[in-house]
Amino acid sequence: MKFVNKLKPIQVIVGGYLVLTLLAALLLYLPFSRKPGQSLSFIDALFTSASAISVTGLTVTNTAETFSLFGQIVLLVTIQLGGIGIMTLGTMIWLVLGRKIGLRDRLLIQLDQNQISLAGLVRLVRSILVIVLVIEAVGAFILGTYFMRFYPWHEALYMGLFHAVAGFTHAGFDLFDNSFLVFRHDYVVNVTMMALIFCGAIGFPVLIELLQYPSRRRLSLHSKLSLIVYVLLWIIGTLFILVIEFDGNLKHDAWHEKILVSAFQSLTTRSAGFATADVRTFQLPTLLMMSLLMFIGASPSSSGGGIRTTTLATVFFAVRSFAKGTKEVSVFGRQFDPADVRKAFVVAVFGVSLLVTALLILSVTEPFELKWLAFEIASAFGTCGLSVGITGELSSVGKVVLMVIMLTGRIGFGAILLMWRDKEKKALYSYPKERLIIG
């Protein structure tokens, strides 16, 4: 315990996720976690565990065929923990046990939920848990009752619960043979899953503000940017897929089904990882657009990964401000904090660097084309889970690289960088300034 107290809060968070990943891997590796006749190496169990705790959904095995009910429940609990954050659940356990939430505990919650202030964190945790349970319960009820058309009632309810949790947390795991391809034109399943994905990706602070909007009649700058950027990217992605795949993957669909499939695929690239179309049949421009959407990911303090929507918005408005010759970065009558602008560029550069480094490593260790490798890396980077079918064929090195990327995406790039950052100190002196030639 003394050793833990000496660690930085971010080191405790990272360590917690690593311990949970290892624990879940050991549980999945147990013989009774698999169905009779199914084998699973420890590296594959570890990969599946990392994919679950990071709510990514990239798999090296077929979940329904490989894991027993016990193994599936282990996955379900793991993705729930990964989706809401280990400190959120830990805080509620502490509150139930009557433990006081101290300053260090609040710092852990702040980092786990990517919050700016320490104020109101316990109230935020309570709100998050209530929202998660209500949304997942509604989703489970709709899907469970609907699946009774295809499965026995007890199996249908279980399927509904599993996919409601996987949808809201953006885990990307499914209990079907080929994701949601069988429900390609099913409006009930598509709309329900899209609603779950949207709620899980927009961010817990935004959901709370939207619920409070009827009484407060205002949204913060964070919520406005998160909503606008998220919906705008969803529309752009939908139109792009619709146009490029109109005579390709969507050729045999009716006009309204083309829109449905395009909208679902555009939304699911924002960290969800489900598919109603065979990704391998998409044309190269579509794969590149989907890779870009996965790189951007969801909103902060959500179940999704990527560099996040607000990072993209901040970089965009900073570039616009530079082009206009103004020092301040502002939008909607509000000025951005310079520290946030600097952080956005750091996260974006770090994200691109991680992506390029991973691609270089995998191009050496794996025998696949760069376009397939880039797609898999972007999927892991955005904790998405969409795959062109090569994940299970990667070498051990390739799987380890993707595991690192998935866990980094779940914890957050800004938080990861804090591991090596010392406490801010006021400089006792400053160096002379000298201009550089840039660009």
UniProtKB/TrEMBL annotation:
Transmembrane segments: 12-30, 42-61, 73-97, 118-144, 188-207, 227-246, 305-323, 344-364, 400-420
Compartment(s) where it occurs, according to its Swiss-Prot or TrEMBL record: Cell membrane
Membrane topology classification: Multi-pass membrane protein
Main location: membrane
Keywords attached to this entry: Cell membrane, Ion transport, Membrane, Transmembrane, Transmembrane helix, Transport
GO cellular component annotations of the record: plasma membrane
GO MF annotations, alphabetized: monoatomic cation transmembrane transporter activity
GO biological process, one term: metal ion transport
Pfam families named among the record's database cross-references: TrkH
Superkingdom of the organism of origin: Bacteria
Protein name as annotated: Ktr system potassium uptake protein D
